Please model this.
Amino acid sequence: MSNSELSISEQHEIRLEKLEELQEMGINPYPYDFDVTHSSEEILNNPELIKKDDQDAEDAEQVAVAGRIMTRRIMGKSTFFNLQDSEGTIQVYIRRDDVGTETYNTVFKKLTDIGDIVGIKGHVFITGTGETTVYAKEFALLSKTLRPIPVPKEVETEDGETKVYDAFTDKEQRYRQRYVDLIVNPEVRDVFRQRTQMVQHMRNFMNNKGYMEVETPILQPIYGGASAKPFKTHHNALDMDLYLRIANELYLKRLIVGGYDGVYEFSKDFRNEGLSRFHNPEFTQVELYVAYKDYNWMMDFVEALIENVAKELHGTTKVTVGDHEIDFKRPWPRIPMFEAIEKETGKDLYGKDLDELRSAAEELNIELEEGSGKGKIIDEIFGEFVEPKLIQPTFITDYPIEMSPLAKKHREKEGLVERFECICNGKEIANAFSELNDPVDQKERFQEQARLRSEGDEEAMEIDEDFVRALEYGMPPTAGLGIGIDRLAMIMTDSDSIRDVLFFPQMKPEKE
Model:
């Protein structure tokens, strides 16, 4: 009976028996280290390592590689197998006469399985079929696996078609067992490498501007900086409730008050909300605050930053996302929010009171939560009719004051604030303000938020008296920015769900 016909529990028992047999032989199946000298990529990209004659090894440079056995073709006294490390896959050739009868016949052939982690020492040669291969002179078992990895198998049907079996493609399994996903789906590893590179390019861009990376509290006595429900916890020693931050905005602006001209933070933030393709309760964003600038300057900055990221990652400003080609080449369109809404709905909502907005929402078949204020209604209409249609990067500007309690009043338009959101691929990826630095105005905005909370808006902000006090010491004109790292990573890696760019996304409890 083949391994594929055995249940996982049966294979688990068989591998436990192999583990015991190895230990009885005096072999440690989990040794402490192995001196790796080369990765698979370094070997494949270095022709100077290759010896043309596989037996001519006296003066060959020795290599030591380690990784998982992914496939193997046993041919009696010798075997070819593929070894996968963090950089890729390379073929290994192993012979009984080189590594010894017991090592080859018992340890390698009988007690080693697909998925086991092994170490190989030897030299590099080219096979008759032209494949770069490591000729094993020494073999070491580095980690005995007790669960089989789901290695895809290709089978040719009678019709000449190729069918793939045992591929690890179930989305929920992949998210729950990301460690397996990373082993058997190399393209997933590439997605997370690109995400890391994206963050590094953003960090370098801001560092080169002279801005300082900082850290601010995750546990906060008063949550603020956004409209969202928080996660709540309790500090036993101080006997006080604390909240996981929903944003780090108010602390970063305190640092601008303190005298820094530019600060930024890549932060983990937490919002007690539902799960979707674009939402995870724990997410990453970068926030940046620059003194003596406004939202017009920040639009220029965001264009330059993200255009640079696209070029660094892809060598071009154009990125393929699903069926769309998105071009981040500057400049991007800049459209006032109410103009965008009127274009898509035919309704001019600027200056309308609460009853008029409710009536407009009803005519547009928008379902509203009880207690929804003006800002909430406008946001719902925008999210339904405008946002999904904005595929190319677009700045939506000049939001109603009710939606933006931390932004400066518009210098020309009554009832609006100087705020923009960058919408791309139908979702917001960045949000920015000319920051409110008038402490009297700020306190009044907080008080209005408190009123909305009392009327049932659970996402309205609480009053942060210490932040008002900080503003009373004087904050210079400031531009503030938040960019959603997860959503930007989705675009830059052509990923369909936020879970595809999070190593360990939040999941419902696993069923027994």
